[in-house]
Amino acid sequence: MGKQWDLFCRVIDNFGDIGVSWRLARDLAARGEQVRLWLDDASALAWMAPQGIPPGIEIKAWEQACRASLGPLGPQSPSDVVVETFGCELPEAFLHHMAEQAAQGHAPQWINLEYLSAEPYVERSHGLNSPQFSGPARGLNKTFFYPGFTPRTGGLLREPGLLQAQTAFEPQAWLAAQGVANQAASGERIVSLFAYPNAPLPQLLAALADRPTLLLVCAGQVQADIQRLSLPATLRLHALPYLGQDDFDRLLWACDLNFVRGEDSFVRAQWAGKPFVWQIYSQDDGAHAPKLEAFMDLWLTQAPAGLASQWRAVWRYWNALAREDAGAKRLALPDTAAGSAALAHARQWRENLASQPDLLSQLNAHLLKHSHKSS
Ligand code: TRH
């Protein structure tokens, strides 16, 4: 019997919070753990999880964890691990419940799962403890767990069997199942688009006009916006419905180039081993600019110089961080076809990441190492 996990997720905006939490919950359940996933808004699961809720996962309403009458979660299922995603702040009633458990000699291990970044502070902050000196959780300890791209971070979510599933994947059959006509023989480039509404769409269309292209556009505002623009004659546009998370992954595997955003699709694009362009979640204080640069520095370390400068220009342009530059008046995409340097680099980056332990294995190792301190 696995551990009992309580995962807390607040949907701030978009789908990243629930997307990451849902992946983590599924990965836990697949490894035999028991998960209660507490959500303040579960509506996105209707499309993200079309097969329903797998055994081992229970969806709970956040509101229920706020009730003082929550009571013990049951002697059969006290929390072993509590995960607060992205500093979402646990309800006070639940903190009381954790303290009660601790008083009975079963203190849950408490993890704050942080946002993903390649910035240097991540290695410094990963694994830091925050002992609680006041409030309902006094006496408990919270540990900061940082995902990341290097061995001194918590790594990335990567469920067992992911790379094998990709190897067995048949893109043409998958595309046909989505109702996309097969024009592989014409040498058509296949591109996916998942972006924020401020992306420079006309410039993207211009950049894609140089060869026959199938553009698979994800559901949402951008899909409506791009359909109002005039399309190059060489471009076939296909509007996708909201896909289940597994099919979203397959979309990335099927394409020659993926435009992704936020956090979870950004990670999945890296696991796809295909060239990609990341649109970072923009912050009012501009904190996204150094975050984008830090990732590019790491990601491009082993890329050939020409490719590295092409990618930097494309990514900065796509993120509105260099449109004033003389050299970046338009989006100039690198070649991403079979045999290209961009594809070789994407594969080599994936290999580098896959040589590091995945996030959940690292989290479990951390919990095991520290379990004696909290029991
Ligand atoms: O939706 P996002 O922009 O989420 C963002 C980021 O997480 C950001 O860091 C955070 O601060 C902000 O939300 C609040 O992009 P992201 O992270 O890629 O999440 C999208 C999720 O939706 C991901 O799990 C993939 C999933 N998805 C599908 O499953 N099917 C689909 O059709 C689409 C379009 C997305």
TrEMBL record:
Keyword terms of this UniProt record: Glycosyltransferase, Transferase
GO molecular function terms attached to this record: protein-arginine rhamnosyltransferase activity
Keyword Transferase: yes
InterPro entries membership: EarP
Reactions that this protein is recorded to catalyse: dTDP-beta-L-rhamnose + L-arginyl-[protein] = N(omega)-(alpha-L-rhamnosyl)-L-arginyl-[protein] + dTDP + H(+)
Family assignment from sequence similarity: Belongs to the glycosyltransferase 104 family.
Protein task: Protein-arginine rhamnosyltransferase that catalyzes the transfer of a single rhamnose to elongation factor P (EF-P) on 'Lys-32', a modification required for EF-P-dependent rescue of polyproline stalled ribosomes.
Record protein name field: Protein-arginine rhamnosyltransferase
